[in-house]
């Protein structure tokens, strides 16, 4: 499924802004492969200025650590490439994950994505809460009750087990469950 979370930036310039204009354009980042090609378009967009100083006045569907008012991270286009075939919930989880990491120009984005894939357990939005819903699945997948006679399964305290799992091994961010490192 194609994502509805297309990364976009509203690109203006400081000169226009300082002269009372917010003229610019929403730029869809999926069109550009590299930071250089993005900046080439920005230069074309603001070709009425000799040396435009770009101002990223707004943005959508981009983790905050990858953009500021005056710059975009070198890793932004790695992120854009990574999310092209992701479901919306996974993109949201990746944004949360990136928000919790120190990212700089030396960050190996492939390693970061591998770490994300290792730590991300999924999205749980059930009526019983993400932690309990995850715990039911975790117990089933790991066969935790397999050695206990079936007639005793009703006595198992899933809520207490969920509490223990989320103290040390897992963390829940708005229904997105990650393994702790």
Automatic annotation (TrEMBL):
Taxonomy, superkingdom: Bacteria
Protein name in UniProt: Antirestriction ArdA family protein
Family annotation (Pfam families): ArdA
Keywords, comma-separated and alphabetical: Plasmid
Keyword field contains Signal: no
The keyword Cytoplasm is assigned to this record: no
Transmembrane segment boundaries: none
